[in-house]
Amino acid sequence: MNLPLEQREMVSLAPINRDPSPQEMDRAIREATLAVDALDWLQPGDTVFIKPVINSGKPYPSTTSPLAIASMVRLLREKGAGRIIVGDMSGVGHLDQRPEGCKGSSRELAKSAGLFNPVLEAGAEWAFFEEAGWDSFYEETPAPGSHWRGGITLPNVLREVDHIISMPRCSRHALLGNTLGLKSVVGYMRYDTRLEYHHDAKTIQEKTAEANTVPTLLQKQRLVITAADKVLATFGPDLGHVVAPPQGLVIASRSVVAHDMASLAWLIPHWRQSPWINKQGLTDPSSSKIVANLANRVVAGMLGGWKQSFSAEGIKHSPQPDIWRDRTLQRAFQLMGGVPNIQLQPTQPSLSPQTLAELADLVALPAATRAA
């Protein structure tokens, strides 16, 4: 596929120590944010929504860093934000949402993951989408040419806010390959939308990117920022080999595509360094296809019953992380203005020059893939 190099997008990289203190995280979040965005869109009293990832009750990096969310809340408070709402709806296997009610609780999973109290203590409030009921969602249509049969359901709380900040994590994903900023959109979806997502799995990567083109996200999402002082380098989204490098990163961009390219570039070397045994079953193309398809059929069955499980389409798994072969990113390039010409901006001279050079090399469009 020929990929044209398009507009320049800045991605900030704030170095952070292993096991950072709240003060160190405050500094890194502030530096990473303000290096790419002056927050001049934020008017006094505006309502801001922060979207973390709480797919399970497991702690960071299986879910978003509580230190990072609390730091962002404090920064927004300082800059004049009014209400700050943090919210998500957890994944299949931990929650069962139906029109008649819900089993499981994103609230309890947030507590188990260590996220609940830090958000309240920093001065924000929580919104767990399933608690408002099945009818508390609205539907929007993604970009023309989408692989979605229906619209994308979004929680009504997004209609109440002025701005959205996405705060994912840096992780592999057993089905999708990786779970970064673009994949975070699934947390908004009501479970009937998630059923289509997993049942029509042949284009699940493309649908991930397409869901990010709904009007609410295009109009309101201002920033994507990841604390990556820990990386879930294998398997995912809940379990796998965790790497905590001596020097971690906070990665921020106004562009979700540029952010995900840099976040995946950070994930790749940690995946390569992970023990061989932790990657078995998911690195070999033949075995990974079997594992991914079986797992996705289980998910489809949880969402829609055994008939949906048996009729679910096959999924094409990405056995190795690769920016230029990642189908979610490929589709995002098509829909969101091409391949961003990424300018990496370290916020501190202490960032390893070797790390910066390696990341720059990974996000640079290979000559062989440029459009003629």
Explain the overall architecture:
This protein is of the alpha/beta class and 372 residues long. The chain has one domain: LarA, N-terminal domain (Rossmann fold, 3-Layer(aba) Sandwich). Helices cover 35% and strands 21% of the residues. The strands form five sheets. An eight-stranded mixed beta sheet has the order 6-3-2-9-12-15-1-16, with helices on both faces. It has a two-stranded antiparallel ribbon with strand order 4-5. β4 (95-98) and β5 form a beta hairpin. α5 packs antiparallel against α9 (285-304). It is globular and about 55 Å long. It starts with a strand and ends in a 9-residue tail after the last helix. The mean pLDDT is 94.
Write the layout of secondary structure elements.
Elements: E1 5-17, H1 22-36, E2 48-51, H2 66-78, E3 84-88, E4 95-98, E5 101-104, H3 106-112, H4 116-122, E6 125-128, E7 137-140, E8 152-155, E9 163-166, E10 171-173, E11 177-179, H5 191-199, H6 204-211, H7 215-220, E12 221-228, E13 231-232, E14 242-243, E15 247-253, H8 256-273, H9 285-304, H10 306-311, H11 327-335, E16 339-346, H12 353-363
Parallel strand pairs: 1-16, 2-3, 2-9, 3-6, 9-12
Antiparallel strand pairs: 1-15, 4-5, 7-8, 10-11, 12-15, 13-14
Helix pairs in contact: 1-2, 2-4, 5-9, 6-11, 8-12
What's a quick, concise take on this entry?
The protein has helices at 22-36, 66-78, 106-112, 116-122, 191-199, 204-211, 215-220, 256-273, 285-304, 306-311, 327-335, 353-363, and strands spanning 5-17, 48-51, 84-88, 95-98, 101-104, 125-128, 137-140, 152-155, 163-166, 171-173, 177-179, 221-228, 231-232, 242-243, 247-253, 339-346. With 372 residues, it is of the alpha/beta class. The strands form five sheets. An eight-stranded mixed sheet has the order 6-3-2-9-12-15-1-16, with helices on both faces. A two-stranded antiparallel ribbon has the order 4-5.
